[in-house]
Specification:
This protein has 245 residues and is an alpha/beta fold. The chain folds into two domains: 2-214, Phosphoenolpyruvate-binding domains (TIM Barrel), CATH 3.20.20; 216-245, no CATH class. Helix content is 42%, strand content 13%. The protein contains ten helices and eight strands. The chain has helices spanning 7-15, 27-30, 42-55, 74-86, 101-109, 125-128, 138-154, 166-175, 196-199, 217-234, and strands spanning 2-3, 20-23, 60-64, 91-93, 114-119, 158-162, 180-183, 191-192. An eight-stranded parallel beta sheet has the order 1-2-3-4-5-6-7-8. Strand 6, helix 8 (166-175) and strand 7 form a beta-alpha-beta unit. The chain starts with a strand and ends in an 11-residue tail after the last helix. The mean pLDDT is 98. The structure holds 3-methyl-2-oxobutanoic acid. Residues 3, 22, 24-26, 64, 160, 162, 183, 193, 195 line the site of 3-methyl-2-oxobutanoic acid (KIV).
Length: 245
């Protein structure tokens, strides 16, 4: 899986063999420049989901339920899920399970495919005090494994494992029947996900250990912009055949 937030990139992801797209609430950081995902709103996620759905026909599209949208009770969660599904998502993803099991169950029983997300939950960054990996100690590791099992029991169709030790991710993956999708969780998950802009190397100022860059797009794009700028300033763009006569 890869994340995606807009029509242009959705077209490109749709041309690739990548199986599924996550319209992540990381949009708040990657697209809108906020410091955390806490600034994502249902309206923001709805707009990005609709744009991706227009560009990536034929791919499974999962949309993130943003911060607190699933913590205000079942009716509010249903409204949020409806906004995302009618915008073109095929499934929704939400972080954690403790304290909102009823919401997960209600969504699943309403026919909405739900993806879980355990380990590092970026929407809880203020509680953690940072983005350090989770589950390095026994008690926390056991709790992450328990949450993943509970999500499976509640009927989610897959679960993201974020920033946990590879050995824990392997154990969880082996213990579940549903697929695990890892990010910073080692090679033994059933699938992997990366933020598109990270894997394309579009922002070299952010480079977490797990985010391999498969392209150096930042320098490529800046070089293209500089070439355009020089051509305009040198008077070589637009040329005769780029002008109407
Ligand atoms: O919002 C997001 O990009 C995510 C991935 C990191 C899994 O939730």
């Amino acid at each position: 899986m890869a994340t995606c937030y807009d029509f242009t990139f959705a077209r490109l992801v749709a041309m690739s063999p990548i199986d599924a797209i996550l319209v992540g609430d990381s949009a708040a950081m990657v697209v809108h420049g906020f410091e955390t995902t806490l600034s994502a709103t249902v309206e923001m996620m709805q707009t990005h989901t609709a744009a991706v759905a227009r560009g990536a026909r034929g791919k499974l599209i999962v949309a993130d339920m943003p911060f607190l949208s699933f913590r205000k009770g079942i009716p509010a969660a249903m409204e949020a899920a409806q906004s995302l599904m009618t915008a073109g998502a095929h499934a929704v993803k939400l972080e954690g399970v403790t304290g909102h099991e009823d919401v997960v169950q209600h969504l699943v029983q309403s026919g909405i495919p739900v993806m879980g997300h355990v380990g590092l939950q970026p929407q809880s960054v203020k509680a953690y005090g940072g983005y350090q990996p989770r589950g390095r100690q026994g008690v926390e590791a056991a709790d992450i494994a328990r949450q993943a099992r509970r999500l499976e029991e509640l009927g989610v169709f897959a679960v993201v494992l974020e920033c946990i030790p590879a050995v824990l991710a392997k154990k969880i993956t082996r213990s579940l029947r549903i697929p695990t999708i890892g990010i910073g969780a080692g090679a033994n998950c059933d699938g992997q996900i990366l933020v598109l802009q990270d894997m394309l190397g579009l922002n070299t100022s952010f480079h977490p250990r797990f985010a391999r860059t498969f392209l150096k797009a930042e320098s490529t794009v800046v070089e293209a912009l500089a070439a355009y700028d020089s051509a305009v300033k040198a008077g070589t763009f637009p040329a005769e055949d780029e002008s109407y006569h």
